[in-house]
């Protein structure tokens, strides 16, 4: 059974009524439902693994724009299962780092290695296939497409059907399309917006759009999820909810790299923090160390509240 669909895109399955079902579930049923969703969302991952070996290596990365050095021999690693924060003042080079990792920019020198293999000159879509997904500071959704369609587009990165297979609508194409819709619905459920699956992205509230971006990035089945200021424009309650979602994503077996200016959020959710200033790494450590680090306080954090008389 499906709900009405105006366009040619995927139809919202009967689970579109899932929001109503969820509202009537007991706590035990909700827990069971969440566990089922988590399994669909993380098909090939070990759920709730310990922080493990290095997943991504940023090795002496330098990025120059004309005379400006946006990244200056920056090196750090990201371990599997970790939530790593990347912080620093405006213009410190955080987004440039994301862009150099995801194929938007070609580094001037240095390299990025995923699972020990250099990403080299791979194009953006191939880097996505290798397992790095990202969201953007400024939301980039297909506004005229439904929330479900936006996430189905993300699953395309994993499809094996050839263009010809899709044109002749081969059985494999149908199977992949059905699986994509099921997984996309599970992802919308996972990020908490399944009740709006059939709505156009442009009509969703701002907080839903941010969550939709995350669902779409997760649809590519990334090994590493990079979030660029996901809490921008959020009120304190939305920030708390986002922290819960980021933890849930990690607990589902993903590794997360987070750029964020909100210190309460960064300190509350990350396992480790790397600090950039003027394109250079000035600190790398646990949130408690970073909070006390004199160079970080001078460059970015300012005087801790406790020290203000
Ligand atoms: N495509 C580009 N061309 C020229 N300069 C650039 C380009 N992209 C970034 N820069 C410059 O590189 C420096 C680092 O910018 P970047 O956006 O990485 O900083 P950021 O730490 O992400 O800052 P914010 O917190 O404000 O987003 C800035 O001086 C910026 O103006």
UniProtKB/TrEMBL annotation:
<dbReference type="GO" id="GO:1903806">
    <property type="term" value="P:L-isoleucine import across plasma membrane"/>
</dbReference>
<dbReference type="GO" id="GO:0015808">
    <property type="term" value="P:L-alanine transport"/>
</dbReference>
<dbReference type="Pfam" id="PF00005">
    <property type="entry name" value="ABC_tran"/>
</dbReference>
<protein>
    <submittedName>
        <fullName>ABC transporter ATP-binding protein</fullName>
    </submittedName>
</protein>
<dbReference type="InterPro" id="IPR003593">
    <property type="entry name" value="AAA+_ATPase"/>
</dbReference>
<dbReference type="GO" id="GO:0042941">
    <property type="term" value="P:D-alanine transmembrane transport"/>
</dbReference>
<dbReference type="GO" id="GO:0005524">
    <property type="term" value="F:ATP binding"/>
</dbReference>
<dbReference type="GO" id="GO:1903805">
    <property type="term" value="P:L-valine import across plasma membrane"/>
</dbReference>
<dbReference type="InterPro" id="IPR003439">
    <property type="entry name" value="ABC_transporter-like_ATP-bd"/>
</dbReference>
<dbReference type="Pfam" id="PF12399">
    <property type="entry name" value="BCA_ABC_TP_C"/>
</dbReference>
<keyword id="KW-0067">ATP-binding</keyword>
<dbReference type="GO" id="GO:0015192">
    <property type="term" value="F:L-phenylalanine transmembrane transporter activity"/>
</dbReference>
<dbReference type="InterPro" id="IPR032823">
    <property type="entry name" value="BCA_ABC_TP_C"/>
</dbReference>
<dbReference type="GO" id="GO:0005886">
    <property type="term" value="C:plasma membrane"/>
</dbReference>
<keyword id="KW-0547">Nucleotide-binding</keyword>
<dbReference type="GO" id="GO:0005304">
    <property type="term" value="F:L-valine transmembrane transporter activity"/>
</dbReference>
<dbReference type="InterPro" id="IPR051120">
    <property type="entry name" value="ABC_AA/LPS_Transport"/>
</dbReference>
<dbReference type="GO" id="GO:0015188">
    <property type="term" value="F:L-isoleucine transmembrane transporter activity"/>
</dbReference>
<dbReference type="GO" id="GO:0016887">
    <property type="term" value="F:ATP hydrolysis activity"/>
</dbReference>
<keyword id="KW-0813">Transport</keyword>
<feature type="domain" description="ABC transporter">
    <location>
        <begin position="56"/>
        <end position="303"/>
    </location>
</feature>
<dbReference type="InterPro" id="IPR027417">
    <property type="entry name" value="P-loop_NTPase"/>
</dbReference>
């Amino acid at each position: 059974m499906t709900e009405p669909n105006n366009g040619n895109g995927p139809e919202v399955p009967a689970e579109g009524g899932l929001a109503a079902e969820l509202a009537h579930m007991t706590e035990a049923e909700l827990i069971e439902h969440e566990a089922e969703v988590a399994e669909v969302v993380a098909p090939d991952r070990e759920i709730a693994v310990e922080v493990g070996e290095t997943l991504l290596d940023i090795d002496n990365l330098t990025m120059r724009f004309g005379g400006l050095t946006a990244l200056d021999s920056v090196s750090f690693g990201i371990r599997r299962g970790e939530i790593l924060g990347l912080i620093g003042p405006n213009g410190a080079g955080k987004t440039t780092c994301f862009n150099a990792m995801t194929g938007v920019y070609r580094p001037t020198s240095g390299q990025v290695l995923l699972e020990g293999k250099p990403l080299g000159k791979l194009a953006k879509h191939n880097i996505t296939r290798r397992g790095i997904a990202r969201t953007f500071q400024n939301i980039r959704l297909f506004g005229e497409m439904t929330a479900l369609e936006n996430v189905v587009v993300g699953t395309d990165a994993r499809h094996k059907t050839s263009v010809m297979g899709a044109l002749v609508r081969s059985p494999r194409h149908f199977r992949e399309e059905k699986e994509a819709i099921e997984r996309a619905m599970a992802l919308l459920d996972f990020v908490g917006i399944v009740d709006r699956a059939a709505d156009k992205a442009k009509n969703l509230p701002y907080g839903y759009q941010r969550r939709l971006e995350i669902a779409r990035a997760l649809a590519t089945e990334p090994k590493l999820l990079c979030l660029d200021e996901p809490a921008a424009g959020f009120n304190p309650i939305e920030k708390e909810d986002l922290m819960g979602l980021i933890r849930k994503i990690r607990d589902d077996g993903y590794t997360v790299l987070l750029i964020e200016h909100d210190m309460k959020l960064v300190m509350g959710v990350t396992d480790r923090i790397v600090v950039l200033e003027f394109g250079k790494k000035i600190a790398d450590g646990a949130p408690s160390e970073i909070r006390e680090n004199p160079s970080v306080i001078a460059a970015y954090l300012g005087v801790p509240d406790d020290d203000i008389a």
